[in-house]
């Protein structure tokens, strides 16, 4: 199938840990338009994997926001909280690469060096690579591990390069694997990262048994057949980790577009704490989503009076636009300062 004939299968993947804001509307609008412009599919996945932070009222809020904006989705909603069994099963498939880490937060802080990766441009507000993990628990013998049993352990994924002493358990095709992962971002162009500079061996399950974001997202993208991921540039350095997981599972990775983050007038990244820009507040203030949709359309150089995401789609289709103008977003690198109130 040529690139042209391929139908986008995208996803909207909100975390119901707070009310969505203007920045979320921006990412979801782009993900949705990208899929719908080529008559593709878009699935809704609630990333409610963390029971302590996810709340039913935020799920309701997200569904109301989507209905208000005019963002529809295909099929049933996928809830990560209902997929624990699946994550368990997929963990078994990569068990040679997984080891328990007994380090406490304090120990990790003490040995961690400063993160070494800088994402393109200087304005990335929150690169998500975390501190580098120094493989402290990776080479413990089975006896040493046994001694520590009972201590809360998270599960980490061993990243390349592998040491000779690991060759017995690591499948042969990975013995000389390199930690370098590259991909062509639809907006940022060619990206290349060294996994070890992005934090090294990362957690797939936290010590409180909550599945880690990187792991759950990769399994879900894989099983849901997602072939295009449109998300904020703040997640850029997660992508090499997810590419590594795809490689371990022998699965083709989706294509990625890491979109510029919206910043408030002070240059701070929009977050759930910007209550005045929460979609819940904007819904009450404006009743119609038109002002917001029209404001966001300008970053795509679309003028017009679309009253909802659906109307914006119709307007783009009328102009015979079949895919999002990704190049247009290059000019912003990874952040756009906004003055929407
Ligand atoms: N659930 C994540 C968030 O709301 C997005 C994950 C992703 O798009 O990969 O930040």
From TrEMBL:
Keywords per UniProt: Aminoacyl-tRNA synthetase, ATP-binding, Ligase, Metal-binding, Nucleotide-binding, Protein biosynthesis, Zinc
Entry's Gene Ontology molecular function annotations: ligase activity
Source organism, top-level taxon: Bacteria
EC number: 6.1.1.-
Xref: Pfam families: tRNA-synt_1c
Domain Glutamyl/glutaminyl-tRNA synthetase class Ib catalytic residue range list: 8-300
Record NCBIfam families: PRK05710.1-4
UniProt cross-references to PANTHER family, sorted A to Z: GLUTAMATE--TRNA LIGASE, GLUTAMYL-Q TRNA(ASP) SYNTHETASE
Entry's family note: Belongs to the class-I aminoacyl-tRNA synthetase family.
Protein known as: tRNA glutamyl-Q(34) synthetase GluQRS
Gene transcribed to yield this protein: gluQRS
